[in-house]
Amino acid sequence: MCGIVGLYLKNPALESQLGALFEPMLIAMTDRGPDSAGFAIYGDEVADGIKLTLRHEDVNYDWEALAEAARAELNAEVSWFQNATVAVFKMHTDAATATAFVEQHAPEVLILSAGHSIEILKEVGLPEVITETFNLKGMKGTHIIGHTRMATESAVTMAGSHPFSTGEDLCLVHNGSLSNHNRLRLELEREGIRFETENDSEVAAGYLTRRLQLGDTLNQALENAMKDLDGFFTFTIGTRNGFAVTRDPIACKPAVLAETEDYVAMASEYQALTTLPGIENAKVWEPEAAKIYVWERA
Amino acid sequence: MKTFDLATTSLRDINQALHEQAVECTEREWKITGAKGDHNLVCGLDQALSVDIEGHAGYYCAGMNKKAHVVVHGNVGQGVAENMMSGSVRVKGEASQSAGATAHGGMLVIEGNAGARCGISMKGVEIVVKGSVGHMSCFMGQAGALVVCGDAGDALGDSLYETKIFVKGSVASLGADCIEKEMRQEHLDYLTDLLNRAGIDEDPASFKRYGSARQLYNFKVDNVSAY
């Protein structure tokens, strides 16, 4: 069992409160996932260049040394800031160059995300501890998706912690399990998608990345996913400017959506939505099976 | 009337107080305020109580209900009134999947829409949905009745036994062994009575009746040579 939550702001006036609005949503899903938690937040756009979120378990890791090496080798501007075990690097280069550099110079560092807007933060532990560690309530942004994990098949480790990102600015949170992920992973690897773990949810993220690379819109990518993914899933997906929710045709994994003039919110259970402003008068409904719900900014 | 606020009283204490009424009934009318999607609200009641819930309920609300009359002034999560034996449950808002699952008796009224698998394996309950129901509703329904004033999703009544199904709107598809049947006077009379008891204002003549073709009931003796 897992808990997934997402919050997409329609009203820019709320962007400074995104983290504060989202924190109780994630914590409310502790019952569904007390083992690890994480979130992907979108905001603080890097127009020229790329943003990486990097993780090393040692909070005293020498990030400046890595930044200095990048400046020298890539001859590019690099700025960074640290948040607990994670550092956000903003580099005046492209994603492929930036990630290749980190992999070569710092193989001990885990790359959690790459993109213009996305930052992924995740750790093993209780959601309330993780949100506190990263000071989620102080974060700003346009949209955010999160996951709380109750490990069933694989161990409680950082590698098994969600969410996963396999392409620039794309992130997916998943409640359920896929049955054809091994074959699909092989096919996607042949097409150039790289995976860090054996996790089925990462394959779903990789699949969407591949479809978007091939020119699909988010909606088309999800229509194709409905045909090619076999298993149980409720997905919430974030892209640089979009937010989507969908469920498999059987729809046995729960989901609830709420919408007001200010936001769209998704959660595994209604309990996670009760702290949102104006929820009493929001349109609240259960997303239909095999239907794709997409919200995108122009 | 006795009122509990979920903000100040735990769910367990509220359910316990209601259960104690089964031994000796000291209070007929109850109200629960501040529901915010809490699971297992008022489960296992066994007394002729009237219970009003203000707010949204989570999973399995009023599950296993016996004799009590529960009204939820909001939405409910999956499995509302699952395995109800008698009494009634009315949902003013929407219901998630598996509403009235396996219920043996009583009446479940959903004034909004119900999700997938409404009335799955129902065994005698009467379910009236003012809106629409999702896919696989009434799957393996054994007895009782499902009335849908809106539309029904795919595979309605799959592997049906003797549950009566009445749908006013469209049916996306019928499940295995479920067929449309003639609406005779006895069925119109029953549906009229059912809608009246549910307090739903609809014209019974505008519904179609569906039921089991009874082809999946028994082992077909013609197949014996396969063994």
Quick structural gist:
The complex is a heterodimer of chains A (about 300) and B (about 230). Chain A is an alpha+beta fold and about 300 residues long.
Q: What does this 3D model show about the protein?
A:
The complex is a heterodimer of chains A (298) and B (227). Chain A has 298 residues and is of the alpha+beta class. Chain A folds into two domains: 2-44 and 126-296, Glutamine Phosphoribosylpyrophosphate, subunit 1, domain 1; 46-116, Alpha-Beta Plaits (2-Layer Sandwich). Chain A contains seven helices and 16 strands. The longest helix of chain A has 14 residues, at 200-213. The model of chain A has no long low-confidence stretch (mean pLDDT 95). Chain B is mainly beta and 227 residues long. Helices cover 11% and strands 27% of the residues of chain B. Chain B has an eleven-stranded mixed β-sheet with strand order 1-2-3-4-5-6-7-8-9-11-10, with helices on one face. The model of chain B has no long low-confidence stretch (mean pLDDT 97). Chain B has a single domain (2-213), classed as Pectate Lyase C-like (3 Solenoid). The chains are: A alpha+beta (298), B mainly beta (227). At the A-B interface, loops of A face strand 2 of B.
